[in-house]
Amino acid sequence: MSPAQSVRVMDADGIHRALGRISHEILERNRGAGHLALVGIRTQGAPLAQRLAERLEAIEGVAPKTGILDINLYRDDLSLTADQPVLRKTEIPFDVNGEVVVLVDDVLFTGRTIRAAMDALTDLGRPRQIQLAVLVDRGHRELPIRPDFVGKNVPTARHEAIEVRLKESHGADEVFIVRPDAEPEGEEVAP
Asked: What is the domain count for the chain?
């Protein structure tokens, strides 16, 4: 594996501001937090959903319902990723029927993770509406999925990666573009 370089595109303050902005946009669009449910997609979406719920409660005085969704069995690349998928628990302690559910994830890329999350969520019931909040939208969609709430748009080349580090799992809040040192053949690096 060739070495890679990384460029920080968000620091802790940037993530804090982005989550604040997303919180206010969620409240404005939904006219409050009392009828909302935030569901984080394992793994990085879960702490982001919890942070958003805490912010919404601080602003509104009402805590939205929160949950965690494991999508591993719903992935369309399951046979490509592992012989035995790692299954974690879905923790949604409320009925999703008739709820406005905001799915929360760290990075939106092709849209396939979100498609899998919607499939998993609708197997639990029929939400009134599903909205999507992401910390980073990096583009390159393969499915007609778009976020309702975005912390930061970060244009990337297809061969680059976005790495989100959160204090809950990494000890610090940062977002990086990870670029391989060698350009893939036939693809130009965007300036």
From this structure: 1
